[in-house]
From TrEMBL:
InterPro entries tied to this protein: AAA+_ATPase, ABC_transporter-like_ATP-bd, ABC_transporter-like_CS, P-loop_NTPase, PstB-like
GO molecular function, a single term: ATP hydrolysis activity
GO terms, biological process: phosphate ion transmembrane transport
Similarity comment: family membership: Belongs to the ABC transporter superfamily. ABCI family.
Domain ABC transporter: 55-286
Protein name: ABC transporter I family member 17-like
Assigned keywords, A-Z: ATP-binding, Nucleotide-binding, Transport
GO cellular component annotations of the record: membrane
Length: 289
């Protein structure tokens, strides 16, 4: 696969000037937006976007301990201030790709770049403050909800006031009554929202979301989705989101990457997923509808 770079308008839906087939050189018409280089295929959706790339992934590969390929040379550029959805069958490498972006596994040198810097050369704690991650199943620290939210800032020598903690709770759809509760007193859904507030307390520039609302009821799910969109619009946050919910991705994402067998086989606008051409992507979308 070639490298696919999206440059969307900050708040407008993107327009892909392709025939929506699998992103391969032979599938593109000759148009001004498409530029070939010796190594990569670049797709510039909006030449006026100058926000630059937040992440750039180059030929990222991973093999399991048993020698089974998990990622087969991922090439993708993720622009600043964009919500990118990643969908695909179970075992296709979605979470593995996500975890590479903040070094929860160590990618090879010269494969993952943040703001133009190879992430393996960055301080890992600094990287994870800048690139926050929310997992499918929350894991809270010992202590109260407030202790959890203050944990990251405390490491930087910053003490959050009660008011700042309350604002973060509100942002995560929780009220101040949770302030003094412990993790053992929370439902899984409540713990997930505390984990979101704790992540946001670090003021990340990028938010990695791995099935972030799988344990939430529909109302809380909608509230969290609203928060994600607001973070993008108000703070320019870059979001990369893995979800098995096609409808959720269509509600939230600016663009969707379809990952099959460790490869990005198609990239589409959320409202054009039905136009997927790859057979496995088609089957996945049909069964998920």
């Amino acid at each position: 696969m070639g490298k696919v770079t999206f440059s969307p308008k900050s708040s407008s839906p993107i327009t892909l000037n392709t025939n929506r087939q699998c992103l391969n050189q032979k599938n593109f018409k000759s148009k001004p937006q498409i530029k070939m280089s010796a190594e990569h295929l670049l797709l510039n959706v909006d030449d006026h976007h100058d926000g630059g790339m937040k992440f750039e992934v180059r030929d990222l590969k991973k093999v399991s301990d048993a020698g089974v390929p998990i990622l087969n040379g991922i090439n993708v550029g993720i622009p600043k201030g964009m919500i990118v959805g990643i969908i695909g069958p179970s075992g296709s490498g979605k979470s593995t790709l996500l975890r590479a972006l903040n070094r929860l596994w160590e990618p090879p040198s010269d494969t993952v770049f943040l703001d133009g810097h190879d992430i393996v050369d960055l301080d890992v704690l600094g990287l994870r403050r800048k690139v926050g991650m929310l997992f499918q199943l929350p894991a809270l620290f010992h202590g109260t909800v407030a202790d959890n939210i203050r944990y990251g800032p405390n490491l930087r020598g910053k003490k959050l006031s009660d008011e700042e903690v309350s604002k973060l709770l509100t942002l995560a759809d929780l009220d101040s009554s949770f302030f003094s509760k412990t993790g053992g007193e929370l439902s899984v859904g409540q713990a997930q929202r505390v984990a979101l507030a704790r992540t946001l307390a670090n003021e990340p520039e990028v938010l990695l979301l791995d099935e972030p609302t799988s344990a939430l009821d529909p109302i809380s799910t909608q509230n969290i989705e609203d928060v994600i969109v607001k973070l993008k619009k108000k703070k320019g946050m870059t979001v990369v989101m893995v979800s098995h919910s096609i409808k959720q991705i269509q509600r939230v994402a600016d663009v969707v990457c379809l990952l099959v067998n460790g490869e990005i086989v198609e990239v589409l606008k959320p409202d054009e997923l039905s136009q997927a051409k790859h057979p496995m992507a088609q089957r996945f979308l049909q069964l998920s509808s």
